[in-house]
Amino acid sequence: MTEVSSASDIGCVRTSNEDSFGIFGDVYVVADGLGGHAAGEVASRIVVAAVRASAEGDPAPDASVLVGAVRRANRQVREAAEENPAYDGMGSTATVLRIDEAAGTAYYAHVGDSRLYLLRGGALRQVSRDHSYVEELVAQGKLSEDEAQHHPRKNLLMRAVGVDEELEVDGDAFPIEAGDRFLLATDGLTNMVEDDELRDLLAGAIAGAADRMVERAIAAGGRDNITAIAVAYVPS
Fold first, then answer.
1. Averaged pLDDT, 131-146
2. What is the dihedral of CA 97, 102, 104, 109, to 10 degrees?
């Protein structure tokens, strides 16, 4: 079985919460809307709705199914923007996880700079890859991880749902082990709370873990919307 906690907050600076999240059985999704005002909220909700439809339509979605759901959301976000000029330029991140207990496998799909983490054996590892300008510089060896953390263009995305007609979506699968813990989070959390602290919070009791993470991000300044889903895999 799995234990889950989730939380989302507007933070201390924004005037609306453009993050959306969903938990549909063994499928989890977080989405961070882009575009400002109501548009970002619309885009992130479209992402979550597309994932929900996929989860409800397929009892055992694998990575390819989750990737397909994100691509459908891409089309739907673009169609909504074409129909309503107020939504022009809107987009969203998308990070989706499914835990298949029967197969002992995790599947995920990902676009943007929301993140999927795995905590195993006391070590926290970022499973997803940020699709951001500074991450490209890090990959090219032009920027260190520490420099990237404080770079002025840190939030410039190279990929997002709804921006381009054709969307490349990361998707993969990996085996899971008893005791594994997962965190899906928007950058309002990961930009405010260091990985070491996220590790410690995720390693504690899952009940209330997401709330504690959000509280920590707010205490650090809460400069963006904050969303977290914490999951513990406890096989029966």
1. 70
2. -20
